[in-house]
Specification:
alpha/beta; 16 strands; 4-stranded antiparallel β-sheet; 420 residues
Length: 420
């Protein structure tokens, strides 16, 4: 049987067709499950690009809240892919979803680490496929020059305290290290760790375990005290860096089956095929474009894109009857587009570097002209500029969204621009 990825590669779908396909798969999921699927996914691989925030942040809460606040659905499934991020943002999103919907479930086919795991544990059900993974929830805190596990910091301090009480002394090296950590930093470490635990304890007991009524082996009735104790044990375990060794550890269904009641999607072959296809299409969208976050459902689509670094904005000579009174200088190394004040602009030329293959492209932008007027005048244009301000690199087929560039130029020039 041909793999899902090869099936899609053979179709050679462009970026808009891939987004259409993602919505088609979401509709198929909804029809099969009779639930409403919302896809939130972030591209971990773009996290090294300057200015691109792929982690879960407060802005994600605002976006999700705005997109879903008018939904008439009672039950929502959230397809979640994130490297982690802000526990506070996860709390905000979870509280909104719990207020808005009577049932909240999470679908995990890729990585939902750290704050993503915290968010997933707020659900009534967790549905996973074999490739899905959660992660430890111990907070990552910065002490001095290093970022590390809050659990490790707390454990190290407690061990040194016990050692000092037992020996009536403290190793000079340890004393030097401790002297550089302020009481406020220590309190912050403890609070960060307890914050994650408190959220997980509350949510597991209230939502995830509410249907846990009979024990698996002895078939005894489950009490509120048992739910509370299980939630506490799981929170402690997921925060225990000593158990997992690394914050980036991928925790699969097999790692968590004794602790959490996780539904295995692979047991339903049709549903599994839909979910794996969603995972592949999301990856293809990320790999072939400047998109780094997706917010999709069957009736809405929103994506966040980054602006590739431009070499600058250069004005062509002799192409239009009116010319700039001042020649704009190339942009600084940051990639910002610089247009000097009091400049009369009729057109601009952008030297755009493909972030995937590195090829440079020249793109023309014409002020106060639409596509038909540009064609009628016979002005120079780049055939790789497609509809909806999408540019396709003719060397590697990577898609660059020109809308952020367009918005930046229009803001500075105070004119409408058409890229061609």
């Amino acid at each position: 049987m041909q793999s899902i990825i090869n099936e899609y590669l053979e179709k050679k779908l462009n970026i808009l067709s891939l987004q259409d396909e993602l919505q088609r798969l979401i509709k198929e999921y909804n029809k099969h499950t009779n639930r409403y699927l919302f896809v939130y996914a972030a591209d971990v691989s773009k996290g090294t690009i300057q200015g691109v925030v792929v982690t879960l942040v407060q802005d994600d809460f605002y976006t999700i809240q705005d997109l879903l606040r008018e939904s008439t659905s009672q039950v929502i499934d959230v397809y979640l892919e994130t490297p982690g991020g802000s526990g506070e943002a996860a709390e905000e999103i979870a509280k909104f979803l719990r207020r808005k919907f009577t049932e909240v479930n999470f679908v995990i086919a890729g990585e939902a680490k750290s704050a993503g795991t915290i968010l997933a544990l707020s659900g009534d059900n967790i549905y996973m496929v074999d490739t899905g993974s959660l992660g430890p929830i111990d907070a990552q805190v910065k002490i001095g020059r290093y970022v590390g596990s809050a659990h490790d910091y707390k454990e190290w301090i407690e061990n040194k305290k016990k050692e000092a009480l037992a020996t009536k002394s403290l190793n000079p090296v340890d004393a030097l290290i401790i002297a550089q950590i302020s009481p406020l930093e220590i309190a912050g470490v403890i609070n960060s760790l307890e914050f994650a635990k408190d959220l997980v304890k509350e949510w597991l007991e209230k939502y995830k375990f509410k249907k846990w009524t009979i024990t698996e082996t002895k078939k005894n009735a489950v009490t509120d005290e048992m739910r509370k104790a299980r939630a506490n044990d799981i929170a402690e375990k997921l925060c225990n860096h000593t158990v997992w060794r690394t914050h980036g550890r991928s925790l699969k269904m097999s790692d968590l089956k004794d602790d959490l009641l996780i539904e295995n999607i692979d047991n339903d072959s049709k549903l599994a095929n839909i979910v794996y296809s969603i995972k592949v299409v999301v990856r293809l969208i990320f790999d072939s474009s400047t998109i780094y976050k997706l917010y999709f459902s069957e009736d809405l689509r929103l994506s966040k894109t980054f602006t590739p670094q431009q070499s600058g904005v250069l004005l062509p000579i002799g192409m239009m009857p009116q010319f700039p009174t001042t020649q704009p200088q190339p942009a600084k190394a940051s990639g910002a587009i610089v247009i000097p004040p009091n400049t009369v602009l009729n057109n601009v030329k952008i030297d755009l570097k493909c972030p995937k293959c590195g090829k440079h492209h020249e793109i023309m932008g014409y002020f106060d002209l639409n596509s038909k007027e540009i064609a009628k005048k016979g002005l120079p244009l780049n055939p790789n500029v497609k509809d909806n301000d999408m540019f396709v690199c003719d060397n590697c087929n990577f898609v660059i969204d020109l809308k952020p560039v367009k918005a930046g130029v229009e803001l500075q020039a105070n004119k409408k621009i058409t890229f061609k």
